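Problem: given the chain below (125 residues), write out its structure.
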Amino acid sequence: MRRRGHPSDFPIAKLTTNMKVNSLKVLSAVVTGLFVLGTTMYAQRDAIDTRTSHAVMTGEAITKADAEKKYPAPNGHYPPANRNPHYPSGVVASPYPPYQQYDCSKVAHGGLVLDIRAKKVFVYP
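Solution.
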């Protein structure tokens, strides 16, 4: 009478076991690589942002009459500046590229400010 061997004694069983181990190694290497790449990109996201690469400039108020004469509003009204909770109080980003930051702490809320880089006017919220 012939004796049967253990299932792991057969070549096909060894092959599938090796394939499972190898695919697990490859999968773990890919996941680790994506994790490292993702955390590096996340850490550098602020360094890539052009809004943080410019120094904060002092915002100069402009009267409504001067703004309408020299810098007419494109749609009949001027766009508001962008606030960021991470900026200090009074610092806003211009709505126009290159999104220069302005310290408008001496400008009244609702006042008009001239973006000297874009040569356009925006509203200090």
